[in-house]
Structure formats: C-alpha cells, structure tokens
Amino acid sequence: MIHHSETKASTRVRIALIGAGALGSECCRQIVQLPGVDALIESILLVDPDILTWQNIPLSRVYQELFHLDPEQCIGRPKVLILQSFVNRYAPLIEVEAMAAPVAEVGWQELRARHILITATDSALSRMETALAATTLRIPMLDGAVHANSAGEGRVSWFTGQNDHACYSCGMSDVSRARLLAQMASPSNGCERLTPALAMSSAPPDTPSLEITAHRMAQLLCEWTANRSGFLTGSFIVQSGELARIAAPRSVTCPWHDVSTAELIELFPDKPFRDQFPRQGAHQGEQCFELQWPISLVASCEHCGKESRRLLRLAQLRTASCPHCGGRALQSDQTVSVIRFRDPLAKLTPRQLGLPDLHLIRLRPTVQFSPITNGQNEKETKRATAS
C-alpha cells in the first residue's frame, strides 16, 4: 500500500497530464466533469509537443466541440493550448498551465510541485521518461492506454512512485526495456533501427475505448484524492466497463529502484555549472552532476558521413534528420552524461546545454562514472555549443 508525503484528503490536488491527444483530451474532459471538481483539483499542467491536425478532430469529442465553435483557432495550434481553453471554459476555478514540449523538456521542479503524474500518450518513450521522473521524485503515476480498433478495451495502471513498489518500467519485458533505455541513453543506434521497433500502432482507437478508459482513470484519480493511503500498484484491464486487476510486482532487472543517497540539486538556468557545485574545497572535484537525459554534442550521419553539431537529447537524435542529406541515421560521436567541476562544459549554464528551466539534477561522486565524452576538449565544446 502506498504512502505519500501529503496525506490530508482535504487538500486539492495538482496534477500533470502528459499527452493531449485522443485519450489525453478525453481524460481531461472526464476530469473536468467530475462532481465538485473545483474542490478536487487545484491546478493542471498540460504537456504535449504536438499541434492539432485535421486527422485529430474525429478522434476527440473535445476537439470536435472546440473546432465547431472556432475552427480558425484550432488547426495548427498546439494541442495543449486548445485543451487549456477547454478547461478554462468548463472549470474556470482550476489553474491551467500548458507546455507545448516533450515531458523530458519539463523541469523536474515543475513536476515535483504536482501530486500525481497522469500519462495518456501513445509514446512508450514518453511513458518511460515520465516514469523515471515519477520514480525519482516519488510521485504517483496514473497511466492509461487503449488498444487500436478495439471495442471498449483499454488498460489503466497505477504506480505509487515509491522505491519498493513497481514502476512502469517494471512491467516491461527485458528486451523492450533495453530498447527504450537505449533510445534514451545510448549514443549508438546499435544493429537495428529503434524508432520503428518502438512505434505503437498507428490505427486509431474507437470512441468506446477512449471513453471507458478515460472514465476509469478519472474515477481512480477521484478515489485516490479521497483516500491517498489505500492504493495498490497494479494494472486494470478495462473491457465493457468491467475491471480485471493484474498485480504488478517490482522487477529485479529494472534499474530505477537502486537506493541512492545522491542529492537532487535545484539548478539556476543562467548560472554556470561550475558555480553550482557545493563548496567543498579540495573535495569539490570529486563530484559530478548526472544528466537524466544524455546529450549529443556532435553526431555523424551513417548515410552521408557528414558531421552535425547540435545539442540534442539522444532520444531526439533518434528521430532527427541529417541537416546535410535529410536522412534519419544520426549517431552520436560526442555524448555528455555527467558534468564534472573541472570539465570544459562546466563553464556553460544549464540553459546553454539545453536543459529545461526549473530543473533538478543529481549530484554524485565522480568515481562512479567513466569519462563523459569521446575525445572532448574545450575547443570542440565551444564549437558544439556555439548555437
């Protein structure tokens, strides 16, 4: 059973909703229509990088309604901004913030301010990135998914966020987890293309699947708000309104549950890394900042062989196009995963390195890590970060 740092049921909750597509918009609609929602929800953070297209309209009751009211304000705009206007329309007392960005670009101070993270996305990578934040920050995660072209079938999972309970990654096979972790953190593409292998079905789910799954997600959110100490980690298969619970034991192969005493540091976005290390005199050089998302400084294209110098998270690199030939076969030649006090990169600020504002980062002993880059020197650092 879970425990949470805040146990008073009377406290209104602050939620983050990751994903504003078909399921995410329906989940938001169901939450907004909960009885007494103003007394239940304090604020909602909406996170999704996508814009609304014509193909999205038939899949969402929310977007259908708003499109008929004002079509010119819908197509081509970020989904989160449109969904924000929906919440403002039907629940004006709820504070709504919209971030048109992947969840990996949301500062962890923003996420730590939330009581629960809700994922309603068709991206397994986005779920993994959210799950890492939930597990590290010890925040519950409510995850929903629907089966393409199913008749009222879906899955709703609850993860407590506690270290001794299963997380989203625990429920994956070792092979699937390894592929996703490689997409997040490995500089090499390996022997297979990861993006097609990890892509979910593009077939759209039907309306009953969306409504039933979103309804159960809203129910669980409501129940947890009333009783935050009575929830178990596990998944529910939702079919025709009935539930079949599946236990979710913690996996011994999941890498996110090792007990760590490393401190999470609040970073100032415009202050050099070197100035943000704790003052420890002679021992200052024995620590390093660990980046949650390794960053490629220099990449080469396997098709044309030319070099590209852009700051990209490795997950972004997997889907990025080569600026020279347009191919999608970039491989990182220089990758940074930790920042030491004496590293040339320590002269940069977190914002210059491409980290989100209001971020948190782990401070660890340097001895746990191998060198952070391949042949990195100060001249190459300046060239790679000139933009």
TrEMBL record:
Pfam families recorded: ThiF (PF00899)
Superkingdom of this protein's organism: Bacteria
THIF-type NAD/FAD binding fold domain span: 6-176
SUPFAM superfamilies: Activating enzymes of the ubiquitin-like proteins (SSF69572)
Any GO MF annotation of the entry: ubiquitin-like modifier activating enzyme activity
Gene3D superfamilies: NAD(P)-binding Rossmann-like Domain (3.40.50.720)
Protein name: THIF-type NAD/FAD binding fold domain-containing protein
